Every structure is written in structure tokens, then in C-alpha cells.
Amino acid sequence: MDQENLPPHVIIFPLPLQGPVNSMFKLAELLCLSGFHITFIVTEYIYKRLIQFTNIHSRFDQYEGFQIKTISDGLPEDHPHSGDQFMQLFDALRSKTKPLFKEMLTCGDLRHVTCIIADGIMGFTCDVANDVGIPIVYVRTVSSCCLWVFFCLPKLIESGELPFHDDDFDKLVKSVPGTEDFLRCRDLPSFCRLGDISNIYVQLYKTEGQEIARAFGLILNTFEELEGPMLDQIRSVCPNLYPIGPLHAHLKTRLGAEVGSSSEQTSSNSLWEEDKSCITWLDEQSPRSVIYVSFGSIATVTKEQLLEFWHGLVNSGVMFLWVMRPDSVAGKDWEENVPEEIKEGTKKRGYIVGWAPQEQVLAHQAVGGFWTHNGWNSTLESVYEGVPMICWPYFLDQQVNSRFVEAFWKLGLDMKDTCDRVIVEKLVRELMEVRKEEFLKRADDMAKLAKGCLSEGGSSYESLKRLVKDIESMAVKDELERPLV
């Protein structure tokens, strides 16, 4: 194929964490299905885990023009890459990965790049894009409701609502337009509790609005019917939005259309080895009888928290499937301190795995509830499958998401700032028994909207079509402006 007739070539550069990498691989495949050539950039640490636990290469081999390039994240090889050390990762990306990224774009190894799609929290990618003259579209893989809170941080500081002046965390927040009647101090991102507006997290996120406005547009993993009011608020700062989520389902829908039938779970972007024996266990359970418990790929709990959760689950009498990562509990000797009564209770009605194929689990007819940390991918997957939630957020955007789940979307119960076996038992029963039909009906209604937005003419379907058209227009414009050789 002549160079002039090649399709658009897009660089995709996710934030190197499980959630963003997962969702941006879905975006990459959607753009591959649109005929684009994709260069997907991951850090060496992420790449090693991908090739260890996934079929990433064989899966993308079918797409002409797809390639993965690795880049250093600037951290030592023995660095744990854990969530509580996020700022170390971010600082290393900004100081050490930035020049490597520029070198990658200018060394001549890549064919001409039409545009860059990068995580909006990595502002250095926009600096590089501007330096080399390539258009950039940002992606934010957090919820729009949390992103809007980030945009409002300067207003929260200016109004005096940050830092907090007392310990009344149930006080309503007034400086986040559209949320005045339900968003409380305890629902703001976790770093807002630190009491210091010079904190590195506050300083990082308070410039989100200005940073994102630098890009050509903003891709969001959400849909209008779920987050329309927050999307309208964000458009006041960044008018060119592409809400194309839920990305995991959008991809499965398009793949299903390609083969003429619904697409099954055939691949994974997980950085952990999935234990699929849990699906066999679920097959043996009654419909909507199991609560699925997973706090994601980063959250850690103390031994004391673990035992409170465990007692509450067993005492609820509800069947449960629990993801307990090898590194999810702080300390080394916790297994020796598990009381016999909860071990016996787990044998009767529980199943524990190190990691699960989550999309497949949430789609299973036996699952009637999801106890989640409310990472945005997990929240969207639950919404799409019509599974009500118990929310126990760990950090950052998850505090905001959990409040929206309970107070705005009415899809579950928010248990933030609580770790007590009696409350766990009560909320599990409330979700799975007492108010089961109410929550299932509400979740089913939202799931129908999520599925509708992906069909032809639906809001996310049309946003993706517009994104593809805009990138194609960039390619045409670039071709016209490129000097003749």
C-alpha cells in the first residue's frame, strides 16, 4: 500500500495502571475495527504482566497495522508499583518518560502519526504533541462525576470549603454545580481529607480543567443516559466530548456485529492470572443468589478489616464469591488468624479466588449483587449487567462514584468509611434479600439504557462515529498540508 493511501495512524498511551490500560485496549480495538492503524504504548512493567497473563499478541494479530511499543516508566525494577505510591510513578513519568516519548515520535521508527490519544492526567503527552506538531485527544478513564469534581477544586478552595474546617463529613458541598443536594464532604476524592491544599494530589488534580482544555477533545468511558447532567457541566469547560462507553460492552457489541452474533468473553487485559474455576462454582448456584466481592487491583485492607468483612459475609447467610488478591491484605501472617467458624462458613456458602474474570462473573445469572471498591471500570461493568452494588471505596475517584451509585442513580448502598461486621451483615442482607427486587428493577432499567446507547443511533454509537470521522479529517488535513517531496 502506498504511504499516501495508508489509513490514519493513532498513538494510544494509557496511564500505566490496570484500569486505564484495560479500557484503552478496548478503545484501541474499536479503532482497529474502524480500519485505523494503532501503536499502543505501554510501560515495560505493564508489558511484562500483559504477556504473562493475557493473549494480547494473538488477539491483536488479526488487525493489520496494530503494534505494541514499550517505554520505561522511570522507576527501578524492584519498585512495587502499588497504588499508594502513585505519585512516585507519576513524577517518574513526567521527568523520565517524557523525553523518551518525544524521542519515540521523532526518531523515524514510526510511520507518520495522525494523532495521539493519551490519558489526560499525563499532561506531558500534550507538551510533546505540541512540540512535534501532532494533534492530541485526551482520554479520562475516571467517571465524569469525579472529573467534574476535579474541575471544581479551584472553586472549592476559593469558596473556603477546602480544606475542611471541622470533622462534620456529612456536611453538603455547595461548590460543585449539579450536586448541591446530595454530595457531602466525605464523598469528595480521598485526598481532600488531608487538610492541606498544597498537597501534591490537590495540586495535580486542581488543574484538570485547564489541562484538558488544551486538547482537541476528550474521550470518556461513559454514556449520556448515565452521566448526562455531569457531561453537560464538563462541556462548559471542554465542549468537544466523546462519551463512547461502556467501552467493554461497546467493543463486544461491535465484535458481535462483525461475526453476526453476540460476542462472548474471549479475551482479557488483566494484569493478574484469572481463576476461571469460579464460573463452574457459579453454575451450581441459584439465580441472583450470589454476592460477588472484589476491591479491584490496587486496594489493600488490614487484617482487622478483612476479618470484619469476612464475619459479616458469613453471618449474612448469603452465598458469596470473593476475590482475594495475594497482595490484598497488609501483613504476612493473617491466614494464621482466621477463626475456624468463618472458615467453616466459607466452606458452606463461599468461594475465594485470587483473581476472577470479572466481566464474565457479573454477566452470570447467579450473581445478584456486587460489593465493590467502585473503580470506574467495575462500576460500569456492574451497571451494564444490571447488578446492584454495595460500595466500599478505597481512594481517589471511588469516593465520588460510590455516592452517585447510592444517592443519584439509586443502584446500591454506600458503605464508605465503615468496617464493621454488623453493618456488613445488615447491608448484604438489605441488598440481596430485603430490598432485592427494588434494586434489581432499578439496575435492570439502567442496564437497558446502557445497551440501547450502543445500538445504531444510540448516544455512544454516534459519539464513536463522530470520533472516527474527526480522526479521518485530521488525516486528510495533514495530507493536504504536508509538503511535497
TrEMBL record:
It comes from the Eukaryota. Its EC number is 2.4.1.323. InterPro entries: UDP_glucos_trans. It catalyses: 7-deoxyloganetate + UDP-alpha-D-glucose = 7-deoxyloganate + UDP + H(+). It is an enzyme of class 2 (transferase). SUPFAM superfamilies: UDP-Glycosyltransferase/glycogen phosphorylase. CDD domains: GT1_Gtf-like (cd03784). GO terms for molecular function: 7-deoxyloganetic acid glucosyltransferase activity; quercetin 3-O-glucosyltransferase activity; quercetin 7-O-glucosyltransferase activity. Keywords: Glycosyltransferase, Transferase. PANTHER family: GLUCOSYL/GLUCURONOSYL TRANSFERASES, GLYCOSYLTRANSFERASE. Belongs to the UDP-glycosyltransferase family. This is 7-deoxyloganetic acid glucosyltransferase. It comes from Lithospermum erythrorhizon.
